[in-house]
Amino acid sequence: MGLTIDSTTPGSQRTSNACGMVYKNTFHLPGRSLPTFLSCPAIIALRRHNRARPMSMTDAQLTTFFAVVGFTPQLSSVLWRSSVLVLALLWCAWALWTGYRGWAAGNISFGALGGSTLRIVLTLIVLMFFTLS
Q: Which position among 54, 70, 77, 99 has the lowest Cβ density within 10 Å, counted as fewest Cβ atoms?
């Protein structure tokens, strides 16, 4: 297993992979693409095996899930996403309230409060984008 490398010229190397295929390794030269070692049968089999498969439940699994839990898997997803967003909103409210109290007491400047508010709002927007998409 692995690669065996023998250097032929300073700018180029001849390499053989685990399948015994020999190719010119030029990936470090600007403007050149990676070598075509992905045509090795062992690599192709691994790529086919590791390909993402859709994880859909059969009718029997859906019926069993509903009988045990009392709601569908889609509602479970909504529950978890909602929980994450509620916790994030509570954290944002706490952070903004703490920042406001610090500003009102004169412990932080208005610019620091504005910067914190901007970071909190951007974090919340990014989280909503990923959880609601």
A: 54
Burial of 132 (0-12, 13-18, 19+ CB in 10 A): exposed
Q: What is the pTM of this model?
A: 0.52
Residues 6+ apart with CB under 8 A from 120: 92, 95, 96
Q: Is residue 15 in some structural domain?
A: yes
Domain membership flag for residue 60: no
Same structural domain for residues 74 and 122?
yes
In-domain check, residue 76: yes
Summarised one tens digit per residue, pLDDT across range 42-67 is 666 656 655 656 678 888 888 998 89
In 3D space, the residue among 46, 67, 44, 65 whose CA is nearest the CA of residue 56 turns out to be: 65
Residue 95 within a domain = yes
Q: DSSP code of 38?
A: G
- Domain of residue 38, residue span: 4-49
Q: Which DSSP symbol is given to 39?
A: G
Residues 78-91 have pLDDT tens digits of: 899 999 999 999 99
